[in-house]
């Protein structure tokens, strides 16, 4: 019997609620998602995932604590925390869009887009595979309600986008390592 590749999923509720056995039956998946988790959760993550490929996504829970004055320090801590998680290969999803408290505001997603750009620039030169699905989850500048169960957490359609993106990235990564 062939060993299944091991994948560890780390992050917030988007990771915790992902039906990994449904989307990735070909993998041995470990779900370390923590609803409400943010940077402090990832900074304190202490599981040995050195024999796994690691998939990370977090930060939507931290957004309302950030502003122009502290965002660069946050990006430094964010990238340091991601790089500190031991892995065979790390796949990092962008920070997902969310819907602001104001019913039709797009302000929070404009900020998240800038934050994602800063993170992506900071990751240049690392071995992290950055997975940008931000625009695919948007509709009219907001998290697409057709991708969510409650205007925040993803539904099957949203998770299909994540799953397809991750599978393609893993395939490309495996091909490039041959």
UniProtKB/TrEMBL annotation:
The terms under GO molecular function for this entry are: hydrolase activity, acting on ester bonds
Q: What keywords does the record list, in alphabetical order? A: Hydrolase
Among SUPFAM superfamilies, the record links this protein to: SGNH hydrolase
Q: Where is the SGNH hydrolase-type esterase domain?
A: 54-160
Which superkingdom is the protein from? Bacteria
The record's listing under Pfam families reads: Lipase_GDSL_2
Spell out the Gene3D superfamilies in the cross-references.
SGNH hydrolase (3.40.50.1110)
**Entry protein name:** GDSL-like Lipase/Acylhydrolase family protein
